[in-house]
């Protein structure tokens, strides 16, 4: 007899585990099935985000930033150290500990919320009188039945055609988080979020990093002013970023990886590196899910096809996170997970796709929400823009981190904030205020009238809002 649940969630990444917890909070009987196994052979819920994504990358960014500060920036504070050394094994080991703490945290939360966890691969097997039959294949086999199923199986790194990841020479985000020795030369294909974050980590630790990007523009989806400022800062730090390239033959040998490519001028180039990170986007995980068995519809790019409420073509089968359309971000997956759990419980779950923030955790950080200036121009929308540089912010000067600015775009007539773009220190934290204002459909003047503590970086947000009305106080 199959174990029966109100909701079976397949996948325990941020989309799945949060959906499971929210559904349990709402009084539903919930099972969550996840296949991730760590190096010790133990279940490791948390998905890409916890195991090989958000969390470990931020741990390495933090450690490598400490090293960078100590080597290059502490002296200006009058602090010097002799005999600075890097113990990479400890640095990577700390990252692994952080990951493990997060895995254990999720198992604890499942227990606390009475979510039944099953370690193994879940697949949709059949429609039943009760709802849906889900098979779990793993060390132990399980037959489950759910009235509702939430698919939250996430995504995997895309390979360059003919160049499979071996995680020793050709690295996905997984191998990029555990290179055993700092490489002399590191190549990266794709100057997207992973390329820039992982490129920053290994450059700070001492590698010579070359990033090869196909598109002519650097960070094409980002506001142009912000992208230019970020590119200037990253190049100054030593990242060799080449845009408009076409990757040709890539060969691996005992010594490393040889990449042939055509540069933006059309000239043939060669790059020899110890390792090559390929970070050219991700593909949805739908293999082995039983989509064909039960007739679950996938879209033309292989994502589970859903409407804006995350409903699939099958009754009571939902899908959230990276496996469906929209940005591949942990917080987007979480919001969808919560909204679906609430819809199942008869509530009105809602995700505002217009106010999902983006953050790139380089130094300076890049963060934005809403429309870019180029998008507003393309729409023919009348807007006002205001910017404020961190150079004119007292806290940024005290921190010794004055790169970048805050830029606010507001409707020309109503003053409603349409987009906020930040490049600079702690942009990841500052963007929350912009998201809040936009969620309440607030105006630039609203930000300008709010009392911001002094001295804080957030005063740059207030000043950018004042700049929309051409009345900055500190510039
Ligand atoms: P996932 O996290 O991919 O989880 C899916 C889970 O389902 C996995 O555990 C998988 O093993 C399991 N699974 C798959 N198929 C089955 C099956 N059939 N049965 C059982 N289990 C299955 N996003 C941010 O917002 N901020 C960041 O800073 C950030 N940094 C990132 C850094 C890197 C290097 C990478 C690669 C990604 C980063 N992301 C970041 C993106 C973020 O990790 C994803 O958007 C997020 O993990 C998606 O969540 P999800 O729940 O949809 O899927
Ligand atoms: P990405 O979409 O951010 O960037 C991929 C880059 O590779 C693009 O600039 C693209 O033009 C380029 N590219 C594609 N094909 C290429 C080719 N053949 N040759 C050269 N360049 C090529 O994807 P990425 O970096 O792999 O990350 C995947 C996703 O993970 C991100 O889109 C994001 O959703 C998520 N992520 C989020 C983070 C965050 O929120 N801080 C951090 C890391 C990842």
From TrEMBL:
Matching Pfam families: Pyr_redox_2, Pyr_redox_dim
Residues forming the catalytic site: 454 (proton acceptor)
Cofactor(s) essential for the protein: FAD
Location (main, coarse): cytoplasm
Secretion signal span: none
Cofactor note: Binds 1 FAD per subunit.
GO CC terms in record: cytoplasm
GO biological process: 2-oxoglutarate metabolic process
Residue numbers binding FAD: 58, 122, 153-155, 322, 328-331
Top-level taxonomic group: Bacteria
GO molecular function, one term: flavin adenine dinucleotide binding
Compartment(s) where it occurs, according to its Swiss-Prot or TrEMBL record: Cytoplasm
Catalytic activity: N(6)-[(R)-dihydrolipoyl]-L-lysyl-[protein] + NAD(+) = N(6)-[(R)-lipoyl]-L-lysyl-[protein] + NADH + H(+)
Enzyme type, top EC level: oxidoreductase
Its EC number(s): 1.8.1.4
Keywords: Cytoplasm, FAD, Flavoprotein, NAD, Nucleotide-binding, Oxidoreductase, Redox-active center
Disulfide bond sites: 49-54
Record domain FAD/NAD(P)-binding: where: 5-337
Residues reported to bind NAD(+): 190-197, 213, 281
Similarity section: Belongs to the class-I pyridine nucleotide-disulfide oxidoreductase family.
NCBIfam families in the cross-refs: lipoamide_DH
Note: The active site is a redox-active disulfide bond.
Protein name: Dihydrolipoyl dehydrogenase
The organism of origin for this protein: Castellaniella ginsengisoli
Lineage: Bacteria, Pseudomonadati, Pseudomonadota, Betaproteobacteria, Burkholderiales
